[in-house]
Amino acid sequence: MHQAPATPKTVRRQHDREIVSLAVPAFGALVAEPLFLLADSAIVGHLGTPQLAGLAIASTLLATAVSVFVFLAYATTAAVARRVGAGDLQSAIRQGIDGIWLALLLGAAVVALTLPTAPWLVDVFGASDTAAPYAITYLRISSLGIPAMLVVLAATGVLRGLQDTRTPLYVAIAGFAANGALNVGLVYGAGLGIAGSAWGTVIAQVGMAAAYLFVVVRGARRHGASLRPDAAGIRASAQAGVPLLVRTLSLRAVLMIATAVAARLGDADVAAHQIILSLWSLMAFALDAIAIAGQAIIGRYLGAGDADGARQVCRRMIQWGVVSGVVLGLLIVLTRPLFIPLFTGDSAVQDTLLPALLVVALSQPVSGVVFVLDGVLMGAGDGPYLAWAMLLTLAVFAPVALLVPTLGGGLTALWGAMTLMMTVRLATLWFRTRSGRWIVTGATR
C-alpha cells in the first residue's frame, strides 16, 4: 500500500513538535548560565561591598570574553547539522571535535593574555582602590576556567547539531548545582573568601566540560571518528567562525553605545536603562532558544539536500517568532505593575522607565522574527552575510543613538533607536531570506 502524502497541517505539526523539543531544553540551558553569576553574587555579596564590586567588574570582563567566542557554538551547530542531514555521522562528530580543539587553543590564548594584564584590565574598568584587589584575584583565578567554558560552547554546538538539546540542559543544571555548593563550601566553609567563589566556578566549569567531552568522545568511538587534532579542520572551523565573530562584536558595540548614551542622560535614565536591558536580555533568551532550534533543523534539511523542507520550516519558524514576540510584548504590558516595584522604588526612575518599556513591548514581534531569521541563516552557514548585515545595522544605529542627547531626547528616544536597530536587522535578514541565496544544499556549504 502507498502511504498517503502528508497534509500541510501534518507537516506543520511535525515542525512544531521538533521546534518545541529542541527549543524548550535550549531555553533551560541558556537561563542556567546567568544563574551562575546570580549565585556567585548572592554568596559573595555577604562578604562585603568591596568584594561584590570586585566580582561585578571581573565577571563583566569574563562574560565579555566568553560572549565574543559564542561563534564556537553557532558555527559548530550549523556544520555538524549539515553532516547529520547528509547521513554522515562520523564526519559530523569529526567536525565537532575540530571545533573543540579550536576552543582549547583560543582558551589557552585568552588565559595567557588575561593573567599578566588583569590589573590593567581592572583599572580600565575604573575599579576603586578597595574593590580592585578582589577584582584582580577573581579575574585571575576565574580565567583558568575559560578553556573549559569555550569547550562547553563548542561541545554544546556539537550536540545541538546532532539535534540534542537535552544533554546541554542536564549538564547546565548539574553545573549550576555544583557551582552553588562549591561556592558556599569554599567561600565560608574553607574561609577562602572571593578566591573560593572563583575556584568553585572554575571547578564547576571544568566538570561541565568533562561531562561534554565524555558524551562527544563516546559518540566518536561509536562512529569511528578520530579524536586527534586536524590542522585543516581546525582552520576550517576558525574560518567559519570569523564572520560570526564580526557579527557578535558589532552587536556588542550596539549595546555598549546604548549604555554609554543612557549614562549621558542622567542617573534616573541610566538606572531605568539597566532595568530594561535586563528584561530585554531575559526575553532574548526565550527568542534565542527558538533560533537555536532553527540552526539545528535548517542545517539538517540543507545537509539532506531538502531545499523545500528548509523553506517550509523557515516559514513556520517565522510564524513562531511573530507569535512569541506578541506574547512577550503582552506579558511586559500586563505584568509591569508587578515587576517594576521589584526593581526600583524611585518614582523618577519609574516615570522614566514606563514609556520606554512600552516601546520595547511594541517591538517584540520584530525581535521575534529577527532572532528566528538569524538562526535560520546561521543554520545555513550564511555567516558572511550576517556579518555585513550587522555592520550595516551598527552604521545606521550609532549616529541615531548618539544624536539622542544632542536633540534633547530621553530614554524613550534611545529605545526608539534600539527599535530602529532591530527594524534594520529585520529588513536585511528578510531580504536575504526572500532571495533564497542562503539555500545551499549538501554536507558542506
TrEMBL record:
Keywords: Cell membrane, Membrane, Transmembrane, Transmembrane helix, Transport. Signal peptide: none annotated. Coiled coil: none annotated. CDD domains: MATE_DinF_like (cd13136). It comes from the Bacteria. InterPro entries: DinF-like, MATE_fam, MdtK-like. Its main location: membrane. It is found in: Cell membrane. It is a multi-pass membrane protein. The chain crosses the membrane at residues 19-39, 51-80, 100-121, 141-162, 169-191, 197-217, 244-263, 275-298, 318-340, 352-373, 385-407, 413-431. Belongs to the multi antimicrobial extrusion (MATE) (TC 2.A.66.1) family. This is MATE family efflux transporter. It comes from Streptomyces roseoviridis.
